[in-house]
Amino acid sequence: MTDLERQLTQLGRELEWPSTPDLTSSLRDRLRTELPDERLPADRSVRRRFRPGRSLLPPAGLRRSLAIAVVALLVLAGGVFAAVPSVRHSVLEFFGLRGATVERRRHLPPAPRPRPPAVGERTTLAHARGVLGFEPLVPAAAGTPDAVFVDGSVPGGRLSLEYRPRRDLPEAKSTKLGLLVDEFRGDLNPEYAGKMAGQATRIEPFTLDGERAIWVSGAPHFFFYRSPKSAFEERRLRIAQNVLLLEHGRLLVRLEGAFGRARAIELARSLGSG
Amino acid sequence: MEAYEEIVRLHQTIAFRTAWVITRSDADAEEAAQDAFVKAHRALPRFRDGAPFRPWLLAIVANEARNRVRSAGRRAGLVLRVAEERRPDDAVPSPEAALLGSERREQLLAAIERLPDAARDAIACRYLLELSEEETAAALDCPRGTVKSRVSRALERLRAELGEEVEA
């Protein structure tokens, strides 16, 4: 982008655009006269509750809101909106941790192009320790990370640790890494990480040493981080491989790689301040 | 219905502004955006699987907006003001905010205003509204190649108008 293009973009942000009228109320009346009210079927389509510990399934009222939010997320995903006409009938299961949501859908949207994980600014562990709103955790079972990144746009910050592929950490097609660890304050970012999985993906909620966790494996699924300001960051959708999502105190920790569940648990159990 | 309201809420600003860039009228832009959302709702079952949503919606919005311009005849200029430079709680302007001085903003706005309609719309969509090429093509109802060439020519013209001051 040239200087002029940057200036024009900046100009657009500084302009006093006419204020946008709220179209929803007027549209509600118009659409009601045209179409029968469509009920969201989320209440009857969410089939399974998370058993270990407390239920991960939100109360019925919230499930309805979540189903609406799912539609909103798909809209914001731009290229994945294709499923919207059927989305109201396609959410089969919903799981949530503090900081992450996982939903199983009858039909997945078209796969996004492979892209590297968005990890923020490269830094050192020592520097990350000073800028993050939490103590970084390092999986001792994987050793010292090859690269450390911090994304400061997330409340409390998000830490990403990258490990190159090696014998005990085979390369994941999704990241080209042996292990990717993401950490952020789940208490400050309640639904920051999102996943959409199809029917061929295994979603296994469980408790790990008293903390809630979800193991997502098998067929690749879609993964995204929602924008801290709105709900969802467009163009951030990417394909993910096997992933362990884990509540760790105030943190939500995400481990992604080509390893199996036992190895993921071993890595998670070795998380410490290093 | 509630799900669609959420869709409207999420997209109403870009829909309204896109319509405004074309109509240059608050009332026409509001009508165009509202009619477009109604039409998009009706057309949702026919929405092509795999197609991105926003360009599709903006194409409907822009079409509604153009219909109003045609029936209204001539349209007004791109009358936009620059928002307050700094809010009271902004102790230090961000690097981006510091990028443009008020004089530069006025120069840019005036130079955009002098562009031919097609070039002005292309610049407004691509940069002021920050639409993608695909979205701009949908909004202007032309191929992406045409968007590229219109934008390129418009940028050249702006550079010529603004001279050395804009160049790095």
Task: Describe the protein in words.
The complex is a heterodimer of chains A (274) and B (168). Chain A is 24% helix and 30% strand. Chain A contains seven helices and 16 strands. The longest helix of chain A is centred in the first third of the chain and has 17 residues, at 60-76. In chain B, helix 1 packs across helix 2 (26-43). Chain B is globular. Classes of the chains: A alpha+beta (274), B mainly alpha (168). Chains A and B meet through helix 1, strand 1, helix 2, helix 4 and helix 5 of A and helix 1, helix 2, strand 1, helix 4 and helix 5 of B.
Write the topology of this structure.
The complex is a heterodimer of chains A (274) and B (168).
Chain A: H1 3-14, E1 15-16, H2 23-34, H3 42-45, H4 60-76, H5 84-87, E2 91-97, E3 100-105, E4 121-123, H6 125-131, E5 138-139, E6 147-151, E7 158-163, E8 179-185, E9 193-197, E10 201-208, E11 211-218, E12 221-225, E13 238-240, E14 242-248, E15 251-257, H7 261-269, E16 271-272
Parallel strand pairs in A: 3-9
Antiparallel strand pairs in A: 2-3, 4-6, 5-16, 6-7, 7-8, 8-15, 9-12, 10-11, 11-14, 12-13, 14-15
Chain B: H1 2-23, H2 26-43, H3 53-72, E1 81-82, H4 102-113, H5 117-128, H6 133-140, H7 144-162
Helix pairs in contact in B: 1-2, 1-3, 2-3, 3-6, 5-6, 5-7, 6-7
Count of DSSP-assigned helices of chain A: 7
End-to-end Cα distance of chain A, whole Å, is 42 Å
Broad shape of chain A: globular
How much helical structure, as a percent, in the residues of chain A?
10-25%
End-to-end gap of chain B: 50 Å
**Approximately how much helix is present in the residues of chain B?**
55-70%
Would you tell me the structural class of the helices and strands of chain A? alpha+beta
Mean pLDDT of chain A: 74
Order of helices and strands of chain B: HHHEHHHH
Please list the strands of the largest sheet of chain A in the order they lie side by side: 4-6-7-8-15-14-11-10
Count of alpha/pi helices of chain B: 7
Q: Roughly how many Å is the radius of gyration of chain B?
A: 17 Å
Low-pLDDT runs of 5+ residues of chain A are 35-89, 229-235
Largest sheet report of chain A: 8 strands, antiparallel
Strands of chain A, total number:
16
Largest sheet of chain B: none
